[in-house]
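Hey, I'm writing a tutorial for new members on how sequence and structure tokens pair up, and I'd like a real worked example in the thread rather than a made-up one. If someone can provide the structure for the chain below, I'll link this post from the tutorial.
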Amino acid sequence: MTIRVAEGSLVVLVGPPASGKSTWAAEQFRPDQVLSSDRVRALVGEGEHDQRAGKDAFDVLDLVVERRLRRRLTTVVDSLGTDAKRRRGWLAAAERAGVPAVAVVFDVDASVCRARNRERDRPVPAKVLSSMLAAWPGVRDGLADDGFTAVHPAGPVAVVAPDLITAPAAAARQKEDPMPLEFGLQLPRFAWPGGPTETAVRPARWRPPPRTPGSPACG
């Protein structure tokens, strides 16, 4: 199913290491829309894996998220997203900016994450990954209480104008329970014999007489 995201939304990726978040973000969004915690860490530290720069990196990332949302720019946060306090901070920024906040969940089998992690140039230590995978079900199940506008499993994305977000649902309702069109007839003048008093009884086939030069137009 296609995920419909309103232009200017906050999109938070949530999933354990090696669950495919960065690959998905690169496929579904422009590079300038994606804020990667690893790339920010490289800006303020000695590379993407410099864990000592973690706090500074997230301070910078939080500031950029805030400023982008103020400008109504679609913003995808590519990090683990498993820290509830940090998610609440991003949600608060979206609320202050008056924009929707969407979570995209990467609920990947643990064996897949372990296999992908082993193939990385810099794999997450096995014990650390096991701990994160053990905590993942609680993180996943708690997202419904965070206050996101919507929580979606990872899938193809369509970024649309905000007023078109609910268009598919409205179309489905119309298909299931059609709302008929009703028409009214406005008669701005009553030129037939008998005048307005005979409005209700005049046959529907009646047509007004042709206009004569100088007569007022019907509106």
